[in-house]
Write a structure and sequence with these properties.
Number of helices: 15
Shape: globular
CATH architecture of the largest domain: 2-Layer Sandwich
Number of domains: 3
CATH superfamily of the largest domain: D-3-phosphoglycerate dehydrogenase, domain 3
CATH topology of the largest domain: 60s Ribosomal Protein L30, Chain: A
Helix content: 25-40%
Strand order of the largest sheet: 8-7-6-9-10-11-12
Largest sheet: 7 strands, parallel
Distance between the termini: 40 Å
Radius of gyration: 26 Å
CATH class of the largest domain: Alpha Beta
Length: 541
């Protein structure tokens, strides 16, 4: 830590905002904090939050992963206006509690992109050339050159699973090594892929054609075990696998199985399901190289994230917008309370649209009707875009950066006010458009009942958008609902509610099921085996 400032005195006046007090609760780069230290109207105190005096006086709190910011801590800091996380993850901050108290939470989403990309490439080279093993051998007074014959990267096919900021940086470095690139990202538009000069493919194609595979997706319920027992066996014999993203994207038990069988030639891991690692069975293989979650741990990255949050805090305390806000943009509590129901509805709608529209999207259109048009609808549009992008990108998405991320991914968006409310007091209509299909939701908020989805595409429904849902498209024939119910019963899945809709007898129809627990992939796959069912998607809201 940098040298601690003197304790704040009781006589200091905060209400006039002439002097802002900032608490730095975790060790951070002093060079990175220099913008705050040099600011004339900011006083920096560095002390663990549990030991800091006069907590009620601080306007801003800066943390890394060491400090857990709970609702109880916020209650002890009534002047707190902003919490800044010097890094990407905000799992150690109670976002809901901060939002309810009108406290803005920011992070530094770009600070470790280069660091992680470089570390991944270092792991790739080390794996290909047996560098850690050779280093250990030489230090053991051995000289066994034949045992460590490696492979060149030039001419090899690198499969990148997940193509956000880090995946993009890795592709640049791979091209410099004259590697061929194959990318799997279902949300990558053709325009952006062409612009970046990469070839896209389905996951199975990437697995079967790549010599080296690296994963860079966020860890979600859909990506957990994305590479597992069922599909690692589809890879080339002798493939190398890398995970410097999130523990659990590559199933560790499945990886060990294919390493033991010899199908996977080697693996490089920086992240694990359990950290610190306690089960060393996977690491016992001399064909596995590992590091202790240090992909973002460089002097430059730590300085960059400290600089980013320092500048964010300075700007925010000077009345400027927070560019990397995780929760709401700056607004009064009164305005937030008025907008909040529609803000939450729009975010849920965006999330559902993202899960139902599995392909790349080029355009998002939002229409507002009725009472909601009297409010600041741009906040709701940003919320909807953030909800849509969150399952699709490998970095935190917030209401402020959502529009920038959408543009980076070649997605256009816009909002309009429309006269038709379909009989509701307020109505939000959102349509996402891809290259060959589109998907539309209509939602409304009723004070007595909460948020409701009242239309899916051209089908009228009425359901509460939360919990475990299954969306089904099918042909309207007798017995389909019975087959579906019997199948779910066989899997011990209980249906809480069911909404059905059809356009005409014997034509296209839909079902939206609310169930008591998250369905397994096997359940969803089995549903599509029913002849009349064309699509079955699980939705978590």
């Amino acid at each position: 830590m940098i040298q601690t400032e003197a304790p704040i005195t009781e006589g200091t006046e905060f209400k006039n905002q002439t002097l802002h007090h900032v608490l730095v609760s975790d060790p951070m780069s002093e060079e990175g904090l220099q913008p705050l230290i040099d600011e004339e109207h900011v006083k920096v105190t560095t002390e663990y939050v549990e030991n800091a005096p006069n907590l009620e006086a601080f306007d801003a709190l800066l943390v890394r992963s060491g400090t857990t910011v709970t609702a109880e801590i916020m209650d002890k800091m009534p002047q707190l206006k902003i919490i800044a996380r010097a890094g990407v993850g905000v799992d150690n901050i109670d976002i809901d509690a901060a939002t309810k108290r009108g406290i803005v939470v920011v992070n530094a989403p770009d600070g470790n992109t280069i660091s992680t990309a470089e570390h991944t490439f270092a792991m790739m080279i080390s794996l290909s050339r047996n560098i850690p093993q050779a280093n250990t051998s030489v230090k053991a007074h051995e000289w066994n050159r034949k045992a460590f014959q490696g492979r060149e990267l030039r001419g090899k096919t690198l499969g990148i699973v997940g193509f956000g900021r880090i995946g993009g940086e890795i592709s640049k470095r791979a091209k410099a090594f004259e590697m061929d690139l194959l990318v799997y990202d279902p949300y990558l538009t053709k325009h952006r892929a062409d612009k970046l000069g990469v070839t896209t493919a389905e996951l199975d194609e990437v697995l079967s054609q790549s010599d080296i595979i690296t994963v860079h997706t966020p860890l979600t319920k859909d990506t957990e075990g994305l590479l597992g027992m069922d599909n690692i066996g589809k890879t080339k014999p002798g493939v190398f696998l890398l995970n410097c993203a999130r523990g659990g994207i590559i199933d560790e038990a499945a990886l060990k199985h294919y390493l033991d069988s010899g199908h996977v030639a080697g693996a490089a891991l920086d992240v694990f399901v359990e950290e610190p690692v306690t089960n060393y069975d996977l690491l016992a293989s001399n064909r596995v190289i590992a590091t202790p979650h240090i992909a973002a741990s460089t002097k430059e990255a730590q300085m960059n994230v400290a600089v980013q949050v320092s500048e964010e805090v300075i700007n925010f305390l000077n009345g400027l917008p927070a560019l990397n806000s995780i929760n709401l943009p700056t607004m009064s509590k009164e305005l937030f309370n008025e907008i909040r129901p529609f803000y939450e509805l729009s975010k849920k709608m965006g999330n559902i649209l993202s899960q139902c529209m599995k392909s790349a999207v080029q355009d998002i259109e939002v229409f507002y009707s009725g009472d909601v048009t009297e409010l600041e609808t741009s906040i709701m549009t940003r919320s909807l875009i953030a909800g849509f992008l969150t399952p699709r990108v490998d970095a935190p998405v917030n209401d402020v950066n959502a529009s920038l991320i959408a543009k980076e991914r070649g997605i256009t968006f816009g909002e309009k006010h429309a006269p038709d409310t379909l009989g509701y007091a307020n109505l939000i209509q959102a349509t996402v458009k891809g290259e060959d299909r589109s998907f539309t939701l209509h939602g409304t908020y009723v004070k007595e009942y909460g948020p409701r989805i009242v239309r899916i595409n051209d089908f009228h429904v009425d359901f509460f958008p939360t919990g475990h849902l299954i969306y089904i498209q099918h042909t309207d024939k007798p017995g389909v609902i019975g087959k579906m119910g019997q199948l779910l019963g066989e899997h011990q899945v209980n249906i809480a509610t069911m909404q059905v809709g059809r356009q005409q007898e014997g034509g296209d129809a839909i079902m939206m099921l609310a169930i008591d627990r998250e369905p397994s992939r096997e359940v969803v796959d089995d549903l599509t085996s029913i002849e009349e069912i064309t699509i079955a998607d699980k939705i978590e809201v």
